Amino acid sequence: MVLANQDGWDRYEAAKWLTMRRWLEANPDDELAKEVRAQLTTEPARHVAYTREYLGWDVFALMPR
Fold first, then answer.
1. Residue range 43-63: average pLDDT?
2. Taking each helix axis from N to C terminus, what angle separates 33-46 and 6-26, rounded to the nearest 10 degrees?
3. What are all long-range contacts of 40-45, with beta carbons under 8 Å and residues at least 24 apart?
4. Distance, CA of 10 to CA of 4 (rounded, Å)
5. Residue 56's pLDDT is what?
6. What is the pLDDT of residue 1?
7. Helix or strand or coil: residue 1?
8. 8 compared with 56, residue with greater pLDDT
9. pLDDT band at residue 57, thresholds of 50, 70 and 90?
10. CA distance 61 to 16
11. Could you give the CA distance from residue 23 to residue 21 in angstroms, rounded to a whole number?
12. Would the N or C end of the chain have less CB density within 10 A of its end CB?
């Protein structure tokens, strides 16, 4: 099991937003571009205000016995 702390979670979110921005640069006229722009406008502040303190992630590696 691997757990993420707040710094790891911040890096995960930042990488996601960077990927979204790069996608927008490459696909400005895509039908989803407006929705992606809206998410990039609200999600960073939402992350800091509401989710950063309470959410994180962990990974479980399972295998049969």
1. 79
2. 160
3. 43/13, 43/17, 44/13, 44/17
4. 10
5. 65
6. 62
7. coil
8. 8
9. low
10. 23
11. 5
12. C
